[in-house]
Design brief:
The chain is 57% helix and 16% strand. It has 159 residues and is an alpha+beta fold. The chain has a single domain, classed as Orthogonal Bundle (Helix Hairpins). The strands form two sheets. A two-stranded antiparallel sheet has the order 1-2. It has a two-stranded antiparallel sheet with strand order 3-4. It starts with a helix and ends with a strand.
C-alpha cells in the first residue's frame, strides 16, 4: 500500500506542477495582450488630433512609443529583409511591462532621429499616453459581443 500511495502522491505533484506551468503561461499571455492593446489604442489615433493620425503619434510621449513599436515589430537585417523573432518580441514586451532600466536605441524610419531610452522611460510614456486617452472621459467601453449585440457603458473622468 505504501508503494502505491507514494506513486499516487508523485502523480499528484506532477499534475500540480503542470497546472502551475500552464497558469504561468496564461498570466504571461494576459499581461502582454493588455500591453499590446494599450499600445495600439495609443498610437496613430486620427480622432485625437483633428483627424490626423500622424500628428497625434508624432508628438510627445507617443513619438517614443511609435519608435519603440518600429524597434520591436519592424526590424530589418543588414540586407533589408524583415527580422521575424517572436522570442525577441516577447522579451522586449516583458521588459517594457516591467519597466527595466535597460537602455535601447530607437531610430526614426528616415534615420534622422536617434534616441537612447530605458524601458522604464517607455513604460512611463505608455502610462501617461493611455491616461491622456482616458482623461477626458469621452470614451466607451464595450463588454461582450454576442450575435451582434454590443453592450455600451459610458464612463466619465473622476476629478
Amino acid at each position: 500500500v505504501a508503494g502505491r500511495l507514494l506513486e499516487q502522491l508523485d502523480f499528484a505533484y506532477q499534475h500540480h506542477d503542470a497546472v502551475h506551468r500552464e497558469l504561468a503561461k496564461e498570466i504571461q499571455s494576459g499581461r502582454l495582450f493588455r500591453l499590446l492593446c494599450k499600445l495600439n489604442m495609443i498610437l496613430e489615433r486620427p480622432d485625437r488630433h483633428n483627424n490626423d493620425a500622424n500628428a497625434w503619434s508624432e508628438t510627445g510621449d507617443r513619438y517614443l512609443l511609435k519608435l519603440y513599436r518600429d524597434y520591436v515589430f519592424h526590424q530589418c537585417a543588414d540586407d533589408e529583409t524583415p527580422v521575424v523573432d517572436f522570442g525577441g518580441i516577447v522579451q522586449s514586451l516583458n521588459k517594457l511591462d516591467v519597466g527595466t532600466n535597460e537602455k535601447i536605441t530607437l531610430m526614426s524610419r528616415d534615420e534622422q532621429t536617434i534616441l537612447i531610452v530605458t524601458y522604464a522611460d517607455l513604460k512611463a510614456c505608455a502610462e501617461r499616453s493611455f491616461g491622456e486617452l482616458l482623461q477626458d472621459g469621452n470614451y466607451t467601453q464595450q463588454r461582450g459581443m454576442n450575435a451582434g449585440y454590443i453592450e455600451h457603458t459610458q464612463f466619465t473622468a473622476l476629478d
